[in-house]
Input
Amino acid sequence: RKEVEQDPGPFNVPEGATVAFNCTYSNSASQSFFWYRQDCRKEPKLLMSVYSSGNEDGRFTAQLNRASQYISLLIRDSKLSDSATYLCVVNRDGGATNKLIFGTGTLLAVQP
Amino acid sequence: EAQVTQNPRYLITVTGKKLTVTCSQNMNHEYMSWYRQDPGLGLRQIYYSMNVEVTDKGDVPEGYKVSRKEKRNFPLILESPSPNQTSLYFCASSLSRTSSSLYGYTFGSGTRLTVV
Output
């Protein structure tokens, strides 16, 4: 089983739609969670951290469910420019090791 | 501008010909790391460095070497490249290993390597 699992997609949605991605992780000791965005052939860029209480940044909302070991990303009012691959990132052990493990990504294609 | 700079962006080489991919950051970051990205496998860590002269293996270190003689530079060396090292490579850095768990990494623009 992969440490971090994501639905690879693609998710094809029309402009203005709301779309949600989930990601599951296997290490219950993980403490830190992130969503990164990666455009085709470009480097990953931090989209947002995911906090225990959930957090929002404009049209983006991230949530964490520790009991079920998954995190989610909700994008409202999708724009064409949101088309990208979204990477779920989890730290491996917590504590001193703090190694970040990347999911394989979910591809989002927003259609006009 | 705060950034991580990798060179070259694209490289085609032949099996067995030694090559070096350079990585430099201007943010005074202690922690630096190399990843490779392959379809269906995601980003996998090759090597990392917690500070000058401190390096350690990641998940897929075979066939690679690194050095950290200065804080800003972290070159990736392929002594004898093979076709299975054809991949997209990213250098990443963070202020410290601890801060990476709070703020994530800053990535370089990537190096697309093809070994024929």
Q: What stands out?
A: The mean pLDDT of chain B is 93. Chain B touches chain A at residues 35, 40-43, 45, 88, 90, 97-98, 100-105, 107-110, 112 (CB under 8 Å). Residues 36 and 115 of chain B are 14 Å apart (CA to CA).
